[in-house]
Structures are given as C-alpha cells and as structure tokens.
Amino acid sequence: MNSKINLFVSVIAFVTLAFPSPEFATELNSQKPVRVFIFAGQSNMVGSDSKVSDIGRFPPFASLELPQEDIKFSYSIGRENKFKSDGWVALSPVNNVVGPELSFARRVTANSDGPIAIIKCAAGGTHLGGDWNPDNPSGFEMYPLALDLIRKSLAELDRQNIEYQLEGFMWHQGENDMFNEQYMANYGDNLENFIKKWRTDLDAPELKFFIGELCTKTIWGMDLRPRMYAISVGQKSVTDKVHHTAYVPTSHVGVEIGGGVGLHYHYGTLGQLEHGVNYADAYLRSIGVTPAQRSQLSSLPFANKSTIKLFVLAGHRNMEGERAFTQNLTANPQQKELLEDQKQIPFRYQLGGGYLASNHWEALGPTGYYETFGPELSFGATLKKTEGNIAIAKFTHSGSQIVDWTPEGSEAKSRNLYPQFIEFIKDSISDLESKGHPVELQGIFYHVGENDMSFGPFRKQSPTWIQSFIKQSRIDLDRPTLNWFVSQQPPTNHEQVNAIDVTSELARLSAEDPHWFHIRAFELPKQEKQLVLDESGVIELGKLLAEEYQSTKD
After folding, report:
1. Best exposed site among 147, 197, 337, 392 by fewest CB in 10 Å?
2. In the chain, how many domains are there?
C-alpha cells in the first residue's frame, strides 16, 4: 500500500484522555502481536524541564507517575551521561522526567486492542544533519546508537518467542538544525533520507513515521520565527510526498512557564503529557480508530425567523483555556453547573488553529481537546440572563502570536490566521442566516496574546498589530462600526519589558476608536503561574467580558 497516513486534524480530536471509551471502534486484526513503537529525537522528546512530581497537578493525567506494568519499555536517553534500561522493563518515568511515551501508551492501549512496547532513544541538543545522520553520523552518533538499541531490543523479543510488529516511529527534532544554515536548508532532504534509511535498516518498508511539529508557543517560536518556519517547511515537504508519513501538530500544547519573563524553550510536564496524546491520536487515526463526537443541535433553539445575537470570541492560551481543567470544577456546586451543556446557546468553534473544530452548531459546553474549557462557558451563562437569542463562535490558537492574526501576517506564512478567522466568522453568520435567522454581530472579543507581553519586540508592536487587525476585519466583514472588545490581563512585570507600556498604548488607541473597548482584566484571581490562567481565572475572565459588553448597552 503506497498511501499517506490521513492526518487532517482540523475536524476531529479524541474526547477521552485517561479512560477507555466504549464509543471507539477499531479496525485491528484479531491476531494481536506486540506493537512496537520507536520514540526518537532531541530535548522535547526526552522530556526536558518536566517533573514527575508535577503530574498530579493535571487531572487528566493522574497516576502516570506510576509504572505501567503491562507496557514493555527499552531505552537509552541522554548525551554524555546516558540512562539505559539494558533490556526490557515496565514503562515508567526515567530520571524523574516526563516523556511523551507515558501518556501515549495509556491513550493507545485504552482505545485500541493488543499489547504495545516502546523503544526510546533521545538526547537533547542533537542534529538531524549531524548526530542523527544515517550516512555520516557525527557528534553523539545517535543514529548508530539508536539502531543498535532497536535491534537488540527486538532480538530479545525474538529470544522470548514474543511475536511483534514494528508499528510506528515517533520523531520530534529540528530545533538544533535551525542554528546551522546548511542543516536548516537541507532539513527536508535529510529527513527523507533518514526515513528511507530506517526502513531499509529495519527491513520495514511500510513503517509509519509521525513527524512532530516544532512548538511555536516556545520562545524560539517567537524570536526565531523564520528558522522555525524553515524547519516546518522541510518537514511538511516530506510528509506531503513520502508514503506512510504524517505531520503531527504540537503548537497548541502547554509549554512550561519559566522564570524571568516566563517564556521557555521546552514543553515541560503538561506539554509533554499532551505531546504524547497528540502522537497517540495520530497513530489511532492511522489505524481507523474513530473518535466520539459531541452531539450536534438537530435544530436551533429559537423561534422561526427570530433574530440571533452572535458573539465571536478569539485569542490565545487563556481564551483557549490551556490550564482550566473540567475535573477541577466538580467539587464546587456553582462551578459544576458550567460543565452542563447550555442548550439554549448554539456554539461552534475552531481551536488550536484548526486542530479541533465543530462540524456544526452544538450546545455550549466544555470542548477543550485535553479536557479543558475556556471563558465561553461563564460568558454565555452571564449573557443568557439578559440577551435573549444568542450564539457564540470561538476561534483560538494558543500557539499563535498577535502578528499571526494581522492581515499582513509574518514571514512564517503557514502561521497566518487572519484569512481563516474572517472566513470562520462569515461562515458562522451565513449558516445562521441560511436557517432563516437574521444575525446581529454583537462584537469580537479578543484576549491579547499572553506570550507577546513577555517578548519585548512583540510587546512593542502589539497595539499597532491589533489596530491593523481591527481595521481590516471591519472592511472584510463589511461592518465599519463593528465593536471590538480587547481584553488584557496584567502584562508581564519584569525589568526586561517594563519599559514598554503596552497598556497605556492600547488605551490610547482604543480611546481614538468609539467602537474599540479596552478591557483591563487586572482583578482576576491570583494565579500560580505567569501568563496562564487556571479554572478560576478563566471563569472570571468570561464573566468580565460579558459584563463589559452589557455595560456598553446601559
């Protein structure tokens, strides 16, 4: 079979993380040998800057710090000082680090039949052009090291008379190649050769490769934007033409919050756990495992031909709800009500820049791809008390920066969200109108990019970028007086960026525009981490946006 893995992720994402779902169906054969998966790459495959002790902070991933006794694991991790299993052991964290294999294994075994085993070889700061070069390995010579590990691990399965099949190769690497001009320019060719060589050396011509996107939410996704983009172009050039390969988006996952301004290079604990889920979902789709879908509204809950007020929510990490987990609402009776579908409010969404999207209108409810929710829940609950027929459309990408939302975009053309966003709004309006309802677009509620506030050049440009965004949207939507509600949480307080008074500049520009409302979300509940809001913060943000809108009508 010479076909590519179908990984169009815009419209589906799995709805369970930790537990099996009876709604999943598989197309696996009845004969079930051990499926062997290879994990390889550099620091964001190792799990750098993650901590096993932090797993308990993220409810969907509870107990992954414990050994998974039914999963075989063989590994060599690190550079100068390597951690080695020296044979097969039970899958568990290594060196107090959380790797993507932990959540991957749980996700795959919960949603498909048959045992699995994982072989992992990864080391931070390594190059595809050098260390992983199959023809002329240099540096830490990772390719021959990994090949030897895999062959010995498979030989041990043979010795134990365990039937197996090589099922997939998870590759996450590329950050270091972007610092070498030659490696960066040749990344696509080098990756294609890498895949070809592995299939030859392992005698596995149909081995599936899952190529992980470099996360644009990290600081490198901002200050090294053109180089990150160049690597992504090289990766996609391979997954577009080489059979049994897939490009796996990762920019929407959590990223570690560091010291200083808060920006970081690594996923950290939460990001690694979600990183593994991304790979698992990509693999499951490749074998025909289909996800359960949220129920769609069979009809709109409004009288025929009645007018609908449409509210558009947009933004980044906190509008998406990166660290707002549904499980943490269950203990509070008032907050728990937000987890119930609000059937009087139609809702459609496109999250993660298209990673997860509704097919049609659904009842407003939790929709985050990692059992998370955004401010739309409390926003809708607050508005429905006074506003009559309302609908909410939400478009977010937590791995974006404000420049990605501008009509001009940036040199990283594939990250430009503006055309998608405008089309999303137009489609939302036309769909409601096609059902016989006049639509009044009440406004766009945009929460300023959190990462932008920590990176000086972007913080400085943010107000004029937003102004450009607003101006062109009114033209393209043919609504010259369209209201924009631009909210911001307290910008990063650090000596590196404090000289840039972004709040005053946003206030100045909004004062010049009678239809631009600047919302200072400065009284949200105190947060444990910079940049990101937890459940309480996200809920209060939604209430604040609704109340600020209502105040404009008084």
Report:
1. 337
2. 2
Residue 41 near residue 78 (C-beta atoms within 8 A): no
What is the domain extent for residue 136? 41-163+175-185+213-234+252-286
Long-range contacts (CB closer than 8 Å, 24 or more residues apart) made by 489-494? 489/318, 489/447, 489/448, 489/450, 489/521, 489/522, 489/524, 489/533, 489/537, 489/541, 490/522, 491/453, 491/459, 492/261, 492/262, 492/453, 492/454, 492/459, 492/530, 492/531, 494/260, 494/261, 494/454
Query: What CA–CA distance (Å, rounded) separates 454 from 457?
Result: 9
CATH number at residue 528: 3.40.50.1110
Q: How far, CA to CA in Å, does 538 sit from each of 317, 326, 329, 336?
A: 10, 12, 12, 14
Each residue's pLDDT tens digit, 445-499:
999 999 999 999 999 999 999 999 999 999 999 999 999 999 999 999 999 999 9
**SS3 label, residue 225:** helix
**Given pLDDT bands bounded at 50, 70 and 90, which one contains residue 17?**
very low
Residue 229 within a domain = yes
Helix, strand or coil for residue 75?
strand
